[in-house]
Amino acid sequence: MAGAGFKDFVAGDVLTADQVDTYLMQQTVMRFASSTARDTALSGVLAEGLFAYLDDTNLVTYYTGSGWTNVTPFAGYGSRFELRHSAAVSLTDQTATAIPWDTEVTDTDSFHAANGEYVTIPTAGLYHFTFTAVLEQSANDIYFECYLGKGTSNPAANSSDRWQGSSVMRTNDTLLTSSAMTVHCSAVINCAASDVIKPWLYQNNESGDSTLSTLANRKDLMLFSGARIG
What domains, with CATH codes, occur in the chain? Predict the structure, then answer.
C-alpha cells in the first residue's frame, strides 16, 4: 500500500514483490502518456499519496484519496495578462496620460475590461508587471517618462503607490531627433484582491502646448503585462 514510508534494507534481506510495490512502485513519480492511461493502469491500486506525471499536459498529479489533483506551486499559479495598443496615443504636454489597452493577447483571470486603462487584481499575491512604450521623434527638447500606479488616479511623485520606470531626456539636435525614444517600467508589487494597477506616460516638450504620440507603427512595443509570481 502507498504510504509505507521508508525501509532501510540491509545486506541479506529478501526483497519481496509486495515490498517492491509498496516501497518503490507506489512511492515514486510514475509517468503516463495521459490521464486516461494513468487511470487505467492504477485503477486497482489507488491509494492516497500516489504521484503521476502526464506526458500530454506536462503536469504532475497526485491522488488525494478521492481523486487526482494537479501539483502547482501555489493557488493562482499561471495567472497572467498581456495587453497591447494598436494605434498612436496623443500625449498632451506636461500631463500624465493613461493608455486605453484595446488588444488582449492573454488574460487568464479577467484582469482587464475591454479598452480599459488598467487591470484589477483577481487574487491577492505577489505580481511582476512590465510596461513599455515608444515615443515618436521630436524636433524639440523633450523629457519623457513612464511609471505604474496603484489605483485609478495619477499617483503623486514619490508616492508609495507609484513605481517609477525609465525616463529619456533629449535636446534639440538633428542627429538625435531622427530616432524614436523608448521607456520601460518593471516592478514587483504585493497586491491585494481588487487592487488596480495602471500604467502612465508623461512628457514635457519645450514648445509648451504641443503633443507627441506613441508610435503606431511600433505597436508591437506598446506593451503592458503582468503575472503572479507568489
Answer: 17-70 (3.40.1620.70), 80-228 (2.60.120.40)
